[in-house]
Amino acid sequence: FDDRILKQLDEWPAFLLRFFPIQTQLGPEKKPFERKLKIKASQFFKHLGEAPLLGKRGYLFHLEQTTQDLDVQKLNLELENIKPKPITEPIKKPAQRIDLHIEELVQDPTGMSNSEMLRIQLETFEKNLNQAIASGMHEITFVHGIGNGVLRKEIQKRLSELRNIQYFKDTQKDKWGYGATLVRIS
Fold first, then answer.
1. 36 has which bridge partners?
2. What are 5-43's pLDDT values in tens digits?
3. 143 has which bridge partners?
4. Partners of 55 in the beta sheet?
């Protein structure tokens, strides 16, 4: 895991796990119950171990705190009354071509570290890609420049991990060299 994922893991809210035991043998009835689980990145990897019954390695957590019996009928009532929240603002369709040169993204990049610049460029890339996907665009071009290729490689790595990307390729070589990537969204 890289630091970015671990930082996000710390920001996750606690999980609320609900258990509905299925009885396969005669005996006392096991009631449904719930547990809260807050995962902290610093502790997460300490929970790797052998999963009982499965015989495989996995992350194991004790769920014995905050026991609370569940009222299944009340829970069903709550679920029936949940109404989806309306989207507050319409999805904005980004421009067909997004320039990721740092000078285009911040007023004065002087004094910024390389990692700071890369973070801003990648945030802009992800925001515009997500908006392009959500708004139904078929293509979008990201101009990242040639440089030493760090931004280009990171963009292409992230694109290769997404299922709804049909393909991506270097584009407009006559204008940008290898400094622009065309993304075809499926």
1. 16
2. 666 777 788 888 877 777 777 777 777 777 777 877 777
3. 99, 180
4. none
Number of structural domains (the chain) is 2
Q: Is pTM beyond 0.85 here? A: no
Same domain, 117 and 147: yes
If phi over 0 gives left and psi between -120 and 50 gives alpha, with beta otherwise, what is residue 56?
beta
- 104 is in which domain, residue-wise? 97-185
d(CA 169, CA 92) in angstroms, rounded, equals: 24
DSSP state of 17: E
- In the chain, the amino acid numbered 149 is G
> Residue 97 CB: number of other CB atoms within 10 A?
15
What are the structure tokens assigned to 102, written together?
A: 């740092």
Cβ(156)–Cβ(181) below 8 Å: yes
